Amino acid sequence: MTNTADTVDLAHRLAPGATDAPAVSAPDRPTLTHGGLRRLIRETVAKMNALGLGRGDRVAIVLPNGPEMATAFLAVAAAASTAPLNPAYRADELDFYLSDIGARAILVARDEQGPAVEVAERLGIRVLRLLVADDAPAGSFTIAGDPVGPPAAPGLAADGDIALLLHTSGTTSRPKLVPLSHANLAASAEHIGATLGLTSADRCLNIMPLFHIHGLIAAVLSSLAAGGSVYCTPGFNALRFFHWLGEAKPSWYTAVPTMHQAILPRAARNADTLAATPLRFIRSSSASLPAQVMAELEATFGCPVIESYGMTEAAHQMASNRLPPGQRKPGSVGAGAGPDVAVMAPDGQLLKPGQTGEIVIRGPNVTAGYEKNPDANASAFAHGWFHTGDQGVLDEDGYL
Hints:
Shape: globular
CATH class of the largest domain: Alpha Beta
Radius of gyration: 21 Å
């Protein structure tokens, strides 16, 4: 999928399925097809261009979890650069992120009047409204708002254009801004699809937040790029999980370990739903999955649990355990699953299996570098590899 912008229309790359094949569904909503999603992407690009927004412009998206958040990310990114932000951010946080991103516009829900609107107006950032018609298919929307400037050059984004801007967590320092190109995202979606054997028959139940790389790429983009579909919930709710499972009839879901742990105690009272909804596999990422939880999930759902390792700078997936007949090792995040993965000593030497050092990666899914942060780039890309900052060891099978 990488470097194909000149040969494959971006709308078809994001939604390559048959015209009437399901693409996006949600609780109590009609399903949006791949043909409908392609049309939505093209219409959104035309609207954004008419509003004066195009390639290189930055649009922050502050929407609740759900199908419109998923499709807005895809459709707006096809015209400009997107920056999904947590709707729960406080005014001071929004001020920092919107300023650091350099947003020209912000996309919010029709009736949104919270701090996102107040901060955007104070910063002189145009506020666009996402409108959803009654009985519209899941993810369908139109955009209303005043032009940001004269019409932008029309057209779909290219592989080298920035599709997604996300900040690192910044728990110990100022958050770093990570730009990810369309080529980065396409490569990552292809890597995940290949690792999980995704096809048009697969449907992902998404319970992950869509302002985070895990949900955006592993759940939404990889599913759609494989011609499959994604069922978009309003966000994680352990009390509603099995109801959604029964309604969506997915073939898989992906989550963080705390979500898996919250689901397990409720499985016994939902035995009928479990029996009627067999999963092909379950995926876990973003934190270490305890071996006991992995075993309980496999016993409860009767399917393999695949633990993966990802980070924002890699457009998510770096390593992953494998589906049968491949190996999955409790306590390991798996072998390289897309990019090259190695363990490096402080002097830049690659270490042998069994030796502990810093995990480093390189590949088409990896960001070209942090924005406006030359010092961070100098250390992060030393010795020709991206340095994750994590310590690890490879075993004799190449599992991390």
